[in-house]
Design goal:
CATH topology: Hypothetical Protein Ychn, Chain: A
Structural class: alpha/beta
Largest sheet: 5 strands, parallel
Number of strands: 5
Strand order of the largest sheet: 4-3-2-1-5
Order of helices and strands: HHHHEHEHHHEHHEHE
C-alpha cells in the first residue's frame, strides 16, 4: 500500500478535482458556513458540550489510542477541575488513515479494510474484517473505551468526507469498481452517532473556533 501511505500529491489533487463530478464538492459550503447559516456541520460543532473541551485529531488508527485518550480525558478531567463529567467535552475527528474507524463491519469485510489500512484484529492477529474499536476493545484497553461506549457517554465523533472520498477511490480502483458506487457504500456504512465534516482539517479548525483545545491523537 505504498500508494496509500505516500499520498502522492499529484494523485491526491487529481482526486480532489474529480470530487466536483461525484458530489463531494457540494459539502464544501459547510466549511465556509462555520460562522454563518446553520448547517449539519455547524450543528455538530455546536453540540460539543462542556466548559472544558478538547478536540482529538485522530489521523491514524493507532491501535485504538484515540479512543483511550477520549476516555482518559473524561476520567481525569472531573477530578482535575473539580467539576462534573458533563463539564468535560470531547470531540473526535476521524480522518486520513483513521477513516475506517468510522465505518461498520460490513464495509470492513467487503473492502478488506484491515488489509488496506494495515489494521490487525487483536482477537485473531490477522487483518481485521470487522471494526475492532467500535463495539468492543481488546486488552490492554478497557471495554468502556470502545467508540460506541464513548458516543453513548457524550463524545462527539465526526468523519472526514475528504478521506471517505479519497480512500473509497483507491478501494474502487483496486477492486475494479465504480468510485461513486463505493463512496456511496462507505457513506451508507458510517456508524451510528458519527457525523460528517467536509474535511477533518475544517472539523479541527471549527472545533477550536468553538473553544476546544486541540490535541493531536496520532
Amino acid at each position: 500500500m505504498d500508494q496509500m501511505n505516500e499520498l502522492n500529491r499529484r494523485g491526491f489533487l487529481g482526486f480532489t478535482a474529480a470530487a466536483a463530478t461525484i458530489g463531494l464538492a457540494a459539502a464544501a459550503p459547510a466549511a465556509k458556513a462555520a460562522q454563518g447559516p446553520s448547517t449539519p456541520f455547524t450543528q455538530w460543532l455546536d453540540s460539543i458540550p462542556g466548559s472544558h473541551k478538547v478536540v482529538l485529531d485522530v489521523r491514524e488508527p493507532g491501535g485504538g489510542m484515540g479512543n483511550a485518550w477520549a476516555w482518559v480525558y473524561l476520567f481525569t478531567g472531573p477530578k482535575a477541575y473539580e467539576m462534573a463529567e458533563g463539564d468535560m467535552g470531547v470531540a473526535m475527528v476521524l480522518r486520513h488513515n483513521a477513516i475506517p474507524l468510522a465505518l461498520g463491519d460490513a464495509a470492513w469485510a467487503k473492502y478488506k479494510l484491515g488489509e488496506m489500512f494495515k489494521i490487525d484484529d487483536p482477537a485473531t492477529g490477522k487483518p481485521a474484517v470487522r471494526n475492532p474499536f467500535y463495539a468492543t476493545m481488546a486488552e490492554p484497553f478497557l471495554p468502556d473505551m470502545a467508540l460506541q461506549k464513548l458516543i453513548e457517554r457524550g463524545v462527539k465523533v465526526v468523519a472526514c468526507d475528504m478521506a471517505i472520498f479519497f480512500y473509497s477511490g483507491l478501494a474502487a480502483k483496486a477492486m475494479g469498481l465504480k468510485h461513486e458506487d463505493v463512496m456511496a457504500d462507505w457513506n451508507a456504512n458510517v456508524l451510528p452517532g458519527v457525523a460528517h465534516a467536509p474535511s477533518g482539517v475544517v472539523a479541527c479548525q471549527g472545533a477550536v473556533e468553538r473553544g476546544c483545545s486541540y490535541i493531536y491523537a496520532g
